[in-house]
Amino acid sequence: MQTRVSVPRAPAVISRVGAQHERILRQQAARTVKSASASPAASSITTKRGTVVCRASSSSPGPIRSLFNLEDIAKPFISAKDTLNEGIASFYDESSGLWEDVWGEHMHHGYYPGGAPRDDHVQAQVDMIERSLEWAGLDATTAEDGVDRILDVGCGIGGSSRHMARMWPGCVTRGITLSPVQAKRANELAAEQGLGDRSTFQVADALNQPFDDSSFDLVWSMESGEHMPDKGKFVNELARVCAPGGRILIVTWCHRILREGEKTLPDDELQLLDRICEGYYLPRWCSVAEYARLCADEGLVDVRTADWSEQVSPFWRAVIRTALTWRGFVGLLRAGPATVRGGLVMPLMHQGLRRGTIRFNLITATKPR
Q1: What is the pLDDT, as a whole number, of residue 226?
Q2: Which family does the entry's similarity section mention (predicted)?
Q3: DSSP string for residues in 18-37
């Protein structure tokens, strides 16, 4: 589904405690916990200087849980971080090697036409890159003369950047990530693949990018917007570094658009998102409507959105299956406790997509000349 948008301001979503947990987790709690008492706010990270909020909404007092969640098994073993950025960097420092070992160099969803399962998951991830570019009007033919400089915001280990460098042999790509481990590995892979002079990677904050204004023809963000605590500043930085006439493409997880009469998501949906936030170091979620408004507020034009939730629906089942293999299980344990917690949260992502709370959205816009 594709939409050309002109939207009003999206209403704020207020997160608070949910009244119900999944029945299976109640049963696990009954078996595991003889007497459960209220725990600290579910979606926050205790740090040496205070609390880093990881929550579905920015305006919430935080949920209070009285029952044990399965992912809490790993929580006591996860070291405290001073800031959200440190938590994100540490998570990817710890987990990226395992992901590469099992899934390869692309750290994002695959594309599954019509939601049909497929076994070639690495090719599905490549297809996600190419289909996203095609949807935005950028493919190897039409963009060959117009894309010389590409920025990959939240680049992981650089898979998307290197693929685009191969698509457009004349272009130069730059990638930024909060993870030193990812940046180092991305540069190693670029050198190994003969792209070291055209694809380079560094540690940098997407909300304070070390680039001059109007530096890039294409500003690309593949599943990094979820980690941005200030979505407005995020879009502002993407627009700032984009050259006039250049294109911005954001592929990201969102919560569903609120229905008529809703001022917030229901408690059970908010609680689901809050648990995912804690597992993956995510701040508040927003809807694709809010992203579209933020693009319009920046003066960007030709703003379009699409919902590819169906096209990614088999992905988390496939990831969960690999985690349940002996290789995946041992890899999770060896990687570290934050990765274990992330693994235990994966079924919640599948659940959120299946019930429609989580949407997989694309947003593209052009910076006026």
Answers
A1: 97
A2: Belongs to the class I-like SAM-binding methyltransferase superfamily. gTMT family.
A3: -S---HHHHHHHHHH-SS--
Band of residue 96 on the pLDDT scale cut at 50, 70, 90:
very high
Token duo for residue 156? 């992981």
Question: What is this structure's pTM?
Answer: 0.85
- Residues 313-341: what's their mean pLDDT? 97
**DSSP 3-state of 237:** helix
Q: What is the DSSP letter of 152?
A: E
Rounded CA-CA distance 132/222 in Å is: 9
Structural domain span for residue 87: 13-366
Residue 68, pLDDT score: 80
pLDDT at 5 over 80: no
- CA distances to 65, 104, 121, 294, 295 from 108, rounded to whole Å, are 31, 10, 11, 24, 23
CA distance 69 to 13: 24
Residue 19 within a domain: yes
Cβ-defined contacts of 124-131 (< 8 Å, 24+): 124/315, 125/159, 126/163, 128/222, 128/251, 128/312, 129/160, 129/163, 129/164, 129/222, 130/167
Q: Which of 41-50, 54-63, 335-344 has the lowest mean pLDDT?
A: 41-50
The answer to whether the Cα torsion of 231, 228, 126, 309 is positive or negative is negative
Q: Is the pLDDT of residue 11 over 60?
A: no
Residues 6+ apart with CB under 8 A from 269: 255, 355, 357
Contacts of 142 (CB under 8 A, 6+ apart): none
What pLDDT shows up at residue 35?
Answer: 31
| Residue 321 is assigned to a structural domain of this protein | yes
pLDDT score recorded for residue 1: 60
CA distances from 322 to 102, 298, 318, 343, 346 (A): 8, 41, 6, 10, 11
The Cα 357–Cα 355 span in angstroms is: 6
Residue 6 lies in a domain: no
C-alpha distance across the termini of the chain, in Å: 28
Q: How many domains are there within the chain?
A: 1
- Say whether pLDDT at 46 is over 50: no
Supply the CATH number for residue 40's domain: 3.40.50.150
Q: Please compute, for residue 133, the number of CA atoms within 13 A of its CA located in the half-sphere on the CB side.
A: 25
Query: How far is residue 131's CA from residue 24's CA, in Å, rounded to a whole number?
Result: 38
Q: How many CB atoms lie within 10 A of CB 87?
A: 25
